[in-house]
# Entry
Amino acid sequence: MSVNPIASVQGSVQSAIALASAKTGIDFNYLLGQAQVESGLNAAAKAPTSSAKGLYQFIEQSWLSVVKKHGAEHGLGWAADAIQPGANGKLAVGDAGIRQAILNLRNDPQASALMAAEHAADNKAGIEASLGRQATGTDLYMAHFLGLGGARKFLSTLQSNPDQIGAALFPAAARSNRGIFYGANGQPRTVAEIYDRFAAKLDTGAGRAGATGLASAVLGEGIADAAEIIPGNGESTSGATRWAQATLDQLNGGARSTQAATAILRPSPDNARLAYLLLAQLGGL
# Structure
């Protein structure tokens, strides 16, 4: 039987995202929608106008920061240890070869998804502490777009004055992202309109990637019940379920080797879509 190479690559990417969701508790639908919006699920994606690369389009300093903070939790202690504050206040790596190796991890689906999930978890905690409510996927995407401080300012304004013009709050961001802050007719958008557009963008991206719920929802509430995950394209429910449960068993017991950790990311290509959806469902319990 021939295997579609594009489908196989996408299956491994989506499985890596499901694994990151299960390990960090960050909603699978959100992570999937974010990756679709940022890179079209292309682990090799590169922005033409910045240093952003990978599934989640991390720029260099943001990547070094999250790897420094969370890398050791996921077998990247060597990378975390090599990253140190530089004389100019930016994070740096003394050895050029090691620095490049760390930056290249942005193109590794597993490392990229894990770091994106950890970064989202940090932002989730910061947003919820600031606003006193549960975070939504759209809240997290605002933090990805504006940084945590900017997201707090944006979301606080959204609560108190949803008709506030966004460009007035974030003039620098508006200059760099005119299509977000202004309509096609040049009319400035309110913070409520900007927020709604981000929510729609996330949900559309998640839907294209095969998500089972809304990426913009309160985190965890967009996942469908396991009974609602419908097989398709000749997928085997039993095979997908066995893979998802075996993956969770390994996660709970800890992968004992690099080979074992890699193996659980590769369900049968025929069952990949259903398998990673089931993994996300089981991981959310």
Q: What stands out?
A: The chain has a mean pLDDT of 81.
